Amino acid sequence: MKTFEDVIIKPVLTEKTYAVISDKRYCFVVDRRANKTEIKQAVEALFGVKVEKVNTVTTIGKVKRMGRSEGMTSTVKKAYVVLKKDSKPIAFFEGMAQ
């Protein structure tokens, strides 16, 4: 069984995600095998909030070159989480909203 810490790997902190934090939308890198129900339960348990919906995106790894060397970027699954209106914001992201 996966623990909640195994499902949520790290937050995605980009300009695009900073812009939507004030709307109670957050983005996380999650385990590729996690489904939407597991992601919702993990966010609710770890941060003490109520989740309205979860959208997921899987970005396939690509071939990259550095001179003659070739490698692959990692395949990443991201979850966009929307909190309910009556839920408080996630404390980790306070002060980052614009």
What does this structure look like?
The protein is an alpha+beta fold. It is built from three helices and six strands, in the order αβαβαββββ. It has helices at about 5, 15-20, 35-45; strands spanning about 10, 25-30, 50-60, 65, 70, 75-85. Strands 1-2-6-3 form a four-stranded antiparallel beta sheet. The protein has a two-stranded antiparallel ribbon with strand order 4-5. Strand 4 (about 65) and strand 5 (about 70) form a beta hairpin. The longest helix has 12 residues, at about 35-45. It is globular.
Span between termini: 38 Å
Number of helices: 3
Strand order of the largest sheet: 1-2-6-3
Strand content: 35-45%
Q: How many E-type strands?
A: 6
Structural class: alpha+beta
Question: Order of SSEs, N→C?
Answer: HEHEHEEEE
Low-confidence parts: none
